[in-house]
Specification:
This protein is an all-beta fold. The protein contains no helices and 11 strands. The strands form 2 sheets. Strands 2, 4, 5, 6, 9, 10 and 11 form a 7-stranded mixed beta sheet that branches. A 4-stranded antiparallel beta sheet has the order 1-3-8-7, with no helix packed on it.
Length: about 130
């Protein structure tokens, strides 16, 4: 079973930095886009940043110039480096991935299934 597991959240003072990690594990054939979203209390989940398998990145306005998304394809891991954190960055951060899960049919053949997965979330709290 494939899954995403985030780590790296915590409590930090305004102006500080955190690095989030998200590792995909299981029977993975390939991973396409990966990204980070966040959800603050009482607000809708919003996109933070995304990265393609080739390394092209996009950022939502709140994190531009402060956040950097990267990935290590060999480790099936995506990172979010967050600098100059502000209290308004406080939220639960979720990892998301579009991937192909490998499903073995028998010893010689397999098929793949497209999956869109979410991690369990990691809390980021920025104090003023």
């Amino acid at each position: 079973q494939v899954q995403l597991v985030e780590s790296g959240g915590g409590l930090v003072q305004a102006g500080g930095s955190l690095r989030l990690s998200c590792e995909a594990s299981g029977n993975i054939f390939s991973i396409n886009a990966m990204g980070w979203h966040r959800q603050a209390p009482g607000k809708q989940r919003e996109v933070v940043a995304s990265i393609t398998s080739g390394g092209s990145t996009t950022y939502a306005d709140p994190g531009k110039g402060r956040f950097t998304i990267s990935r290590d394809n060999a480790k099936n891991t995506v990172y979010l480096q967050m600098n100059s954190l502000k209290p308004e960055d406080t939220a639960v951060y979720y990892c998301n991935a579009d991937l192909q899960e490998r499903q073995d049919i028998n010893r010689r053949s397999y098929t793949t299934k497209t999956r869109n997965l979410w991690g369990q979330g990691t809390q980021v709290t920025v104090s003023s």
